[in-house]
Amino acid sequence: MHSLLQEYLANLISKSDSVFKPICFQLSCGTWVWQHAAGILEFIPARYFEHSVILTAGVHGDETAPIEVLDQVIRDIAHNELKLQYHLVVVFANPQAIRQGIRFVDTNLNRLFASAYNSQSDGPPLGLDNYEYRRAAQLKQALHVIFARTAFTHRIHLDLHCSIKPSIYPVFAVKPYTEVGRAPVIYNCPIVYPVEALIHSRRASATLSYYTTNYLAANAATVELGQAAPLYKNPPAMLKSIYSNIRVQLAQNFSQPRFCILSDKHFVVKAEIIKQKLDFRFAADLQFNNFHPIASDRIIAYQTRFQPIFAKANQRICFANQAVEVGHRAALIVEKLA
Asked: Which residue range or ranges hold the Succinylglutamate desuccinylase/Aspartoacylase catalytic domain (predicted)?
């Protein structure tokens, strides 16, 4: 096994981004490995492959269960204990936040993917040194290089997260909106991740899975895998479940027509609550668990003391977080589809 893959996560945490230089080497099993930058690894199987799978974790540095799982995936590939059926890209998205055990360093990384690679909006505001802006541009560049080089029948992207709040459905996913005129999402996906609920977005966003859907023609989703915990403090049963679902998808070849997420409960986004002012706050007695039902005409939050936000009938709240930056989403309001 190449020394780079020995305790990759531990090395990523203990060293700075600049230590991780581009490098290419071949494993004993024949798989080629490219490190494009810190935390960006590409695995190219020796056998013929039609499809590409992107697994990302650590967009928020304190959502650690999928980070640990992807480190295990890397070890198993390196030891030839996991024989890939697909081209694979593994990304630890926000190394500096992972090192510090925080959500982000300067700004929310998952709000920086609204535009195409190399667009004028890739950089931070003039004069501002911002780690996440630089990292978002680096991630876009690496993915652009990878997918400009090789054509794939399917590109599948699972952006793996954990929720800040408890959830009625602990394992759920969000399907990004596909812009009119963008490359269509192909529903003949060779892998599928099972979840308890799937939220369908109805508008453009700036998430990483939105970017891969609309600019890389990927069959993509953001996947929430239980509640966040500190690194190496995640329940073993939770890690085993995540790893088992990922491993079976990477090692088997499927061809049934479907989306990359499987669920029998579907929700649609009806509204986004945007934090418009610093004194934004949620109603003190509101239950914040993801998918918690909200009574009709119930006050959800206050933009200011005299500016309440009311719920409508049959609505539920997800991703409630009043600590977000001004201008960012503080919650999603969803409704269940019949």
From this structure: 52-235
Which among 77, 66, 85 has a CA at the least distance from the CA of 159?
A: 66
Cβ atoms within 10 Å of 22's Cβ, excluding its own: 10
Q: How far apart are the first and last CA of the chain?
A: 51
- CA-nearest of 223, 213, 260 to 116 is 213
φ, ψ at 336 (rounded to 5°): -80, 135
The pLDDT profile of the chain, 338 residues, written as one tens digit per residue, is 678 898 999 999 999 999 999 999 999 999 999 999 999 999 999 887 888 999 999 999 999 999 999 999 999 999 999 999 889 999 999 999 999 999 999 999 999 998 887 665 666 665 677 999 999 999 999 999 999 988 888 889 999 999 999 999 999 999 999 886 665 555 567 678 999 999 999 999 999 999 999 999 899 999 999 999 999 999 999 999 999 999 988 887 655 556 788 899 999 999 999 999 999 999 877 778 999 999 888 899 999 888 899 988 899 999 999 999 999 999 999 999 97
Q: Identify whether the C-beta of residue 271 lies closer than 8 Å to the C-beta of residue 319.
A: no
Burial letters 313-335, b for 16+ CB under 10 A, else e: eebbbbbbbeebeeebbbbbbbe
Strand ranges in the chain using DSSP code E only, listed in sequence order: 23-26, 32-37, 40-44, 51-57, 87-92, 154-163, 171-175, 193-194, 197-200, 219-227, 261-262, 266-274, 281-282, 292-294, 299-304, 307-310, 315-318, 329-336
Segments making up each domain of the chain, as ranges: 3-262, 270-336
DSSP element (H, E) containing 142 = helix 131-149
Please state, in angstroms and rounded to a whole number, the distance separating the CA atoms of residues 195 and 259. 12
**Into which CATH architecture does domain 270-336 fall?**
Beta Barrel (2.40)
- Paired with 198 in beta bridges are 173, 266
CB-CB contact of 131 with 96 (8 Å): yes
**Which fold is adopted by the domain 3-262?**
Aminopeptidase (3.40.630)
Nearest CA-CA partner of 33 in 83, 89, 93, 86: 89
